[in-house]
C-alpha cells in the first residue's frame, strides 16, 4: 500500500518585491494541502487490514525489543536520508525528534513489505530495512519536494492549512548561466583557430573534451585557470612526486580544485607536514591517486586527525600489555594514512571517536584495530557495526568472543550480512567444526565460499582426515596439497599400526 496523498492545486506564487532596504527577495507560497489516511501509521489497524480481520500478525505478536530496535534503525536511515538532502545533522535530528508518528509509519511499512518474514518469526537485518525504506523515502521526496520535512513532522496530518512560508531565492540565480558559460569556454575556438591553451595542454596529457566539460560542470572556476600560472605547475608538481602521467587525468577529474590551490602556501606545506609523520615520499603517488582531496584539506583538519591518532596510541600505554602496540601505532601511523587516506576526511568527533568507543565496548584494542583495518572506522555504527554484532550475538557468541574475533580480523565488520556473513555461516554449520573455531579463525569470512571454502573442505571430507580451519584455508594451493597428503599418510600409517597390533594380539587358534 503506497502512502499516497490527495493533493489540491496550490495557489499561484506571488512575488514580494525588494523593500527599500534591499532585503532578500522571496516568494510567498501557499502550502500544498496534503491528506494522509491515519491508518497508514496506525500499525495495529494496518496489520488487521493486511493480515486478516483478526489481525493475525498484530503489534502484540512482535517483541517490544524488536519494535524498539526497528524504530531506531528507521530513525537512523531517515537521518541519513535527510542529511543527503542538504540538512545539517542538528536540523535532521531535530526533525526526527518531532516526527514520532512518521517513524511509526516507517515501521509499519516494514511490516507490510516483509509481512511473510514476521509470520515465521524472522527479524529484518539493517540492510533489509534500508532497502525497504530508502525507495519509499525517495518516492515521498519526488512527490512532495521541498516540503518533505513538513510532511514528515506533521504526519499523518497535512503540514499546515493555508500556511504561508518564505522560500528565499537562490543566493546566485545566475549560477546555471555561469556553468554554461564556463563549459562553453573550454570548447571555444579562438581567433587563431585553436582551443584555449590550457585545454590543449590537458588534451595533450590524456584528457578528452568531455572529461574537461564534466570537471567544469562540477567546478566552473576551472575553465578560467591559466595554463602557466595554475594548471601546468600543479601537473609538474604531481609528476615530481612520481605520479605517472597516465594517472594525472584521473586525479584532476576527482579534484579539479587542486589547480586553484597555491603550491607555496598550501600544497607543499601540507606535504611537508604529513611527511614529518613518516610518510614515505615513494608512497605519495599511490596516496594521491586514491584520494587527491587529501591535499586540499586545511592544516587544522589534518592536525585534528593526526592528533587523534596520537591519542589512540597514547591511551593504550596505560595498559602494560598494550604498550608495544601503542608504540607500533605511533611509529607507523603513516601506514594508516598511506593505506587509507580517506581517514583524513572523517570527522574526529562525529565519526572516529564514536566508532572507537563502540569497539572499546567490545573489548577491542582500538589502536591495534586502527592500524590493521583503518577502513573499519569509516563504517556507520547503526547501519554496519551494530547489525554485525547482533548477527554474532544471535548465533550464540558473547561480547568477549566477538571482541576477540574483530581483534584478530579487523575487516570482519566490513562484510555484507546478506552477501557474505549469512551464506558463509550457513555453510559453516554443515562443516564438522565447533562454533569456537570461528573465534580462533574469523578470517574464514574473508575467503571465497565458492572458490576456496567449498572446494577445499570437499577434499578434506573425501580424504577422511581432520584439519584445523586455518590449515584448510590460509595456505596456498600447493601447501594445502602437501598438508593434506601428509595428514592422509599419517592416518594410513596409524591405521596400519593399529591393524598390525590387533593381528599380533589375536589368539593362535583364530590366526589359523
UniProtKB/TrEMBL annotation:
Origin superkingdom: Eukaryota
Gene Ontology biological-process annotations: DNA-templated transcription termination
Protein keywords: Transcription, Transcription regulation, Transcription termination, Transit peptide
Keyword Cell membrane: no
Cross-referenced Pfam families: mTERF (PF02536)
Molecular functions (GO terms): nucleic acid binding
Gene3D superfamilies, per database record: Transcription termination factor 3, mitochondrial
Protein name: Transcription termination factor MTERF5, chloroplastic
InterPro entries: MTERF, MTERF_sf
Amino acid at each position: 500500500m503506497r502512502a499516497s496523498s490527495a493533493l489540491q492545486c496550490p495557489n499561484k506564487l506571488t512575488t514580494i518585491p525588494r523593500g527599500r532596504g534591499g532585503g532578500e527577495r522571496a516568494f510567498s507560497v501557499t502550502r500544498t494541502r496534503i491528506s494522509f489516511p491515519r491508518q497508514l501509521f496506525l500499525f495495529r489497524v494496518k496489520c488487521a487490514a493486511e493480515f486478516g480481520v483478526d489481525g493475525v500478525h498484530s503489534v502484540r505478536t512482535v517483541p517490544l525489543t524488536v519494535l524498539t530496535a526497528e524504530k531506531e534503525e528507521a530513525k537512523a536511515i531517515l537521518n541519513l536520508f535527510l542529511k543527503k538532502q542538504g540538512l545539517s545533522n542538528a536540523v535532521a535530528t531535530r526533525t526526527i525528534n518531532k516526527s514520532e508518528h512518521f517513524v511509526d509509519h516507517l515501521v509499519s511499512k516494514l511490516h507490510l513489505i516483509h509481512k511473510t518474514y514476521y509470520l515465521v518469526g524472522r527479524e529484518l537485518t539493517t540492510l533489509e530495512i534500508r532497502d525497504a525504506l530508502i525507495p519509499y523515502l525517495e518516492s515521498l521526496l519526488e512527490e512532495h519536494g521541498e516540503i518533505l520535512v513538513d510532511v514528515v513532522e506533521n504526519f499523518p496530518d497535512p503540514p499546515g492549512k493555508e500556511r504561508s512560508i518564505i522560500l528565499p531565492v537562490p543566493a546566485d540565480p545566475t549560477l546555471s548561466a555561469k556553468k554554461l558559460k564556463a563549459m562553453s569556454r573550454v570548447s571555444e575556438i579562438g581567433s587563431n583557430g585553436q582551443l584555449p591553451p590550457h585545454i590543449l595542454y590537458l588534451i595533450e596529457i590524456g584528457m578528452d573534451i568531455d572529461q574537461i566539460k564534466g570537471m567544469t560542470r562540477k567546478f566552473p572556476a576551472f575553465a578560467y585557470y591559466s595554463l602557466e600560472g595554475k594548471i601546468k605547475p600543479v601537473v609538474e608538481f604531481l609528476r615530481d612526486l612520481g605520479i605517472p602521467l597516465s594517472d594525472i587525468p584521473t586525479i584532476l577529474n576527482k579534484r579539479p580544485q587542486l589547480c586553484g590551490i597555491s603550491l607555496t602556501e598550501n600544497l607543499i606545506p601540507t606535504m611537508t607536514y604529513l611527511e614529518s609523520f613518516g610518510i614515505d615520499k615513494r608512497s605519495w603517488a599511490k596516496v594521491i591517486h586514491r584520494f587527491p582531496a587529501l591535499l586540499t584539506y586545511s592544516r587544522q583538519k589534518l592536525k585534528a586527525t593526526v592528533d587523534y591518532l596520537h591519542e589512540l596510541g597514547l591511551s593504550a600505554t596505560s595498559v602494560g600489555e598494550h604498550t608495544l602496540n601503542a608504540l607500533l601505532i605511533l611509529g607507523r601511523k603513516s601506514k594508516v594514512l598511506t593505506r587509507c587516506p580517506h581517514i583524513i576526511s572523517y570527522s574526529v568527533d562525529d565519526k572516529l571517536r564514536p566508532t572507537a568507543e563502540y569497539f572499546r565496548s567490545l573489548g577491542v584494542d582500538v589502536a591495534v584495530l586502527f592500524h590493521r583495518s583503518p577502513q573499519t572506522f569509516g563504517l556507520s555504527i547503526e547501519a554496519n557495526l551494530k547489525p554485525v554484532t547482533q548477527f554474532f550475538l544471535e548465533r550464540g557468541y558473547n561480547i568477549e568472543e566477538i571482541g576477540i574475533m574483530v581483534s584478530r580480523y579487523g575487516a570482519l565488520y566490513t562484510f555484507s550480512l546478506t552477501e557474505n556473513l549469512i551464506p558463509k555461516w550457513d555453510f559453516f554449520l554443515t562443516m564438522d567444526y565447533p562454533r569456537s573455531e570461528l573465534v580462533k579463525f574469523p578470517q574464514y569470512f574473508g575467503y571465497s565460499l565458492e572458490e576456496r571454502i567449498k572446494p577445499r573442505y570437499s577434499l578434506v571430507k573425501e580424504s577422511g582426515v581432520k584439519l584445523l580451519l586455518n590449515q584448510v584455508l590460509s595456505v596456498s594451493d600447493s601447501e594445502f596439497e602437501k598438508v593434506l597428503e601428509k595428514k592422509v599418510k599419517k592416518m594410513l600409517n596409524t591405521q596400519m599400526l593399529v591393524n598390525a597390533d590387533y593381528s599380533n594380539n589375536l589368539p593362535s587358534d583364530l590366526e589359523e
